[in-house]
Amino acid sequence: TGPHSAEAESQTEWTDVQKKIIPWKNSTPSLDLETAFQDRAAKLGKSNSRLIVVASLIDKPTNLGGLCRTSEIFGASALVVGSLHYIQDKQFQHLSVSAEQWLPLVEVKPSQLVDYLQQKKTEGYTIIGVEQTAKSVDLTEYCFPEKSLLLLGNEHEGIPANLIHHLDVCVEIPQQGIIRSLNVHVSGALLIWEYTRQQVIKQKQQQ
Question: Which residues belong to any copy of the tRNA/rRNA methyltransferase SpoU type domain (predicted)?
Fold first, then answer.
């Protein structure tokens, strides 16, 4: 007993909650993620959300750190990044405020995204792109499926054409200003919140 044992117990719990999968193809990601979701929900008393946020195309540590924080706060089930090296970046850590310790992180390189998206489709996920296209659905009119995968575009190029073809739907955020482009973290946060409002908060109200 004593402060040292309490600290050791805290360290053990911290390690148990932190789940990282490197890389996704060399393991059984579905099983690992399912375990991570249940473990996290049980330990933290959070909703067992089925929203995967895919940020593999994003390369600014500040945006990734902010998305990590937002994803954790609203109970997303996982954040997918292009490289787990980002979490060592001081800018990432400054924005994430340790959220990476409480959120399952998955490494999927941009070159692996087509395979990853196809796999998630077979698992029943709807692939949602945050992008303005001719067929985009207004966010205020879109009903998120329970198993939603949110693909965010690169800061400059957005979502490349070869990935647009793999999306089930593009959702755009209604805008009224002159500037027609939101920061990618802001865009992601708005959709993460709307998924949470529809799927998580409504479920709690019904219980």
Answer: 51-192
